[in-house]
Amino acid sequence: MILTLTDDGRTVEVSAGSVVTVRLPENATTGYRWTVETAAGLEQVDERFESGGGIGSTGTHELQFRGSRVGSFELRMKHWREWEGDRSVDRRFTVKVKVK
User: Fold this and answer.
1) Which are the contacts of 53, defined by CB distance < 8 A and separation ≥ 6?
2) With 0-12 CB in 10 A as exposed, 13-18 as middle and 19+ as buried, what is 15?
3) Which residues pair with residue 12 across a beta bridge?
4) Averaged pLDDT, 33-53
5) For residue 87, which phi and psi values (nearest 5 degrees)?
6) 49, β-bridge pairs
7) Contact in structure between 23 and 60 (CB atoms under 8 Å)
8) Rounded distance, CA 53 to CA 98, Å?
9) pTM higher than 0.85, yes or no?
10) Pick the residue with more confidence: 50 or 52?
């Protein structure tokens, strides 16, 4: 299952052992990055950045999580400049993942 910004606030259902892929726009040259705030119950299995092509262009931050055990879990992420702290958060992404 692939989730994007348009899925923010949704509840999704997956089978145990399935991988949920989150693809979010990110321009790392600005210092703003997506960071996982909580993924309790979900195992992060991969993370990568796909460049947008040109210098300074927006790319895609992709993170993958496995629902290893049955339950209902919240995946919450924030888009921020870590060195500036929470006052720099300009976006959040949250989904509820029900693993069956």
Assistant:
1) none
2) exposed
3) 97
4) 91
5) -65, -20
6) 61
7) yes
8) 35
9) yes
10) 50
For 40, the token pair is 């309790």
Whether pLDDT at 7 is above 80: yes
CB 74, CB 40: distance < 8 Å: yes
Report whether pLDDT(71) > 90.
yes
What secondary structure does DSSP assign to 28-63, as a single string? Answer: GGGT-EEEEEE-TT-EEEEEEEE--SSTT--EEEEE
Largest CA distance in the chain: 43
Distance, CA of 17 to CA of 65 (rounded, Å): 10
pLDDT reading at 22 higher than 80? yes
How many angstroms separate the CA atoms of 96 and 72, rounded?
A: 7
HSE (CB half, 13 Å, CA atoms) of 19?
A: 10
